[in-house]
Amino acid sequence: MPHRHPVKVRFYELDPYGHLNHSVYVQLFETGRVELLDEVGLGLHDLEAEGFRFVVTQIATRFRALPLWAGTPWSSRRKSSRSAVPRRGGDSAS
Fold first, then answer.
1. 34 vs 31: CA distance, rounded Å
2. What are the pLDDT digits (tens) for 10-46?
3. CB 74 within 8 A of CB 4
4. Nearest 5°: phi and psi at 45?
5. What angle do CA 35, 72, 78 make, to 5 degrees?
6. Rounded to two decimals, what is the model's pTM?
7. Residue 53 backbone dihedrals phi, psi, to 5 degrees
8. DSSP strands (E only) in 21-93
9. Straight-line distance from the first to the last Cα atom of the chain, in angstroms, rounded to the nearest whole number
10. 86 near 56, Cβ under 8 Å?
């Protein structure tokens, strides 16, 4: 089951057309990722203390609905890929 993190669109995140700017989605995805890790007991500080760091190497977004407007409630849904595995700092990914 994917993780969901509810948010509300804020006025300053809107573009000149009045809907959520496309670049804000990536910020919301990051917030959802951090919340997911916290929910399962893997806080970023704890992981870093153990030598693990996350590096985002690719982001793909497909917009499947109408734009979001100010005040619109929305939930980011997070589904990890196979490559979303923490690696110790300095280790290279294969």
1. 5
2. 899 999 988 888 889 888 888 888 888 888 888 888 8
3. no
4. -65, -40
5. 30
6. 0.64
7. -140, 150
8. 52-53, 73-78, 87-88
9. 27
10. no
